[in-house]
Input
Amino acid sequence: MKKTELLAPAGDLARAKTAIRYGADAVYIGGQLFSLRSRASNFTMEDIREACAFAEEYGRAIHVTVNMIPHDEDFEGLEEYLKKLEEFGVKAIIAASPAVMKLARRCAPSLEIHCSTQMSVTNSCAAKFMHEMFDVDRVVLARECTMGEVKRITKESPVETEAFIHGGMCVNYSGRCTLSNRMTLRDANRGGCAQSCRWQYHLYENGKELSSDLLFTAGSKDLLAAKHIYDLMDAGVASLKIEGRMKTEYYIASVVSAYRHLIDEIMETDRPLSEERLAWHTKQIMRGENRETWAGFYEEKPAENSLIYHPNSDANVNHDFLATVAEYDKDSGTALIETRNPIDAGDEIEVLSGTMNARTFRLEWMKNEDGEFMEHSRRPMALLRIPVPFEVRKEDLLRRAR
Ligand code: SF4
Output
């Protein structure tokens, strides 16, 4: 089976490094300009340069979203920006505008151009058109494609395809939505989506509120396509993409690592996963996911079971992110950790470590910075010394099952 890229999101430099450490083949990021989600992006130009250098060290790649729908005034500075990306060693830009694609091909010719999902490519004719007219190197398929459509487009497309496997979905056509513009004056297609579909709304009929207890949201459940990964890989899809540039470091580490193991297992066995193995991998993925999920359009057109009608909760969270490892001392067999959530002596702790399998241990004791033993730690960002019965590495993550 051909090697398939695992493409992960990152909202800042730390998360880009995490994605790479935890097994992403490529990471897509957004600069502070010209990108959707630009409000969430913390990548300065210097950060983009550093992300490229870090990726190169690991033999991985950085893609940069330049996927706003630009109006005339948005082009100011774009040419210089694209040239800088090329100079830094960015592999590809993800663009949603023919004008941006044309400009990139002219001024930064070594950048690959990936046609964003915002272009809603749902058929092979569109893929051919994007390649012939705008010389794109890859099309990111619309999330609204069925598995049959993904297979057909991938077979007939003159360029490689990329498909989403995990993360948030729009209830409109992949961001082609002006709900946020109307509700908040923030342009969803110029980086400002306020996710108005996920707000909680009071329902009225003929001017009368139906029930003050009955709040309504129209957000989609998140995509979780684990059971379709074999088919996507077998169809020849070049890249499997996780959505979520606004997600936390813990989410990135958990979800990327889980899909890394799943993809590697399929690569090794070259056959679909058994029911049992699929259930195991899905459980690993769900350790980072905190929203309800569905398999997207791959197997069915969306029905009411694809939406979250009630206010969101973290009821699906099955693990708590406890701490990151700051250092490990081999001589004493102890680690210095920086806490994120409450920890108690006696907790059963799982270590998430790059692409290695997770390992667990029982926390025998912990000491604060003054060397005093503690039974409980409740303060985030506290530095604690704990014994760990195997070697761990800086940046490893500690979590506990609920
Ligand atoms: S408001 Fe919701 S449907 Fe519209 S672009 Fe934002 S996330 Fe998508």
